[in-house]
Amino acid sequence: MSAMFSALSVRNYRIYATGAIVSNTGTWMGRVAQDWVVLTELTDNSAQALGIVTGLQFLPILLFSPIAGAISDTFPKRQVMLASQSFMALMALVMGVTVLTGHMELWLMYALAFLSGSAAAVDAPARQAFVSEMVPKEQLTNAVGLNSASFHSGRLIGPAVAGLLIAAVGTGPTLLINATTFIAVIIALLSMNTAELTSPPRAAKRGRVRDGVAYVRQRPDILLIMVLVFVHGTFGMNFQLFNALMATEVYGKGVEEFGVTGSIMAIGSLAGALLAARRERPRWRLLLGAMIGFSACLMVVGAAPSFWTYTLLLIPTGLAALTVMVSANAMVQLTTDQAVRGRVMALYMAVFMGGTPIGSPVLGWFAETYGPRLTVFLAATVCMLTAVFATIYVMRHDNLRLRLRASWTRPLALERGAVVTEPVPEKVN
User: pLDDT digit string (tens) for 4-20?
Assistant: First the structure.
């Protein structure tokens, strides 16, 4: 049990994790409230409008992630996060006030989603790479798993609380509560002992973005992981859309049940995160097996005959989905040179979340044309085919497994802008 929470023994990480779980809970409350405003107050259950809002939230990650990664590698990550978190709090406040006063319009919701997503694009690579500054390398996988556990604990609590609050006091006050929860993570960042943080080497003044791209291009293992997470994020992880449409259109449920779907799925996600926190390091077979399992679960979910069957099936689906995300994240972080980690994680976030601006509107249109069930089945099929082809590729290329194993014993390095990727010879069991 102690191994599952070993990273919490580090004071700075413990403070950060406390603030993060409060903020994560508020974020999920805000997402449910935002979706409900779009579906019921600004449109007549328009799946396409919901898909556009979701897409605009993630479009900046696709557009700005390389620059955001360079910022993360150039400036102190803690300072970058303080600025980005403060701006996201401001956008959440504006959204809540506008909805509460009755002045919200669809175009304004689009704009606020894009602006908030822009701050999140800057925040994401700094937040991902900041973990390695708070904890030693041997506890990094545990910290990544606990971060996911914190995120999905918020996902477990947030949607259910949001459903109750929206039914009781409305969407405006719920969005305002989300704005206040950003204060927790800001206080946590300000309370850290900066002397205990590991200072990574700073990026060179020139070629910051180019070096990150060059590094990834010479790492076929990271490239394959990015293909997997692109498909996973673009097609599979659209439950913000799937749950809303399945709950309202297929099963005829209201906001309380919609909120419950996110919370029930988070039970599986939280279990997956805690299991991931126990592992010392992820492996290809875990990542690929979880991707295949997730795709199979998604197919079954799309065929669920009743709302409660659908909801309960979200538990194993969430567990498999989270295992994919934590394994991929840890594999990239643990095998990437620290000097370029911020830029690599920015590219990772770009491909993982950057496909959402394409996937969400397309899936929203597909759902309006062919129905939610076929939409879920389409997403599951794309994920399954990608996982199967990736498994065949890894089985045929032993160098991918060798490269991953070598990275545990010697970090890869940048020398005068060139990427050194020669693996350490090691027996492959």
Answer: 677 888 889 999 989 98
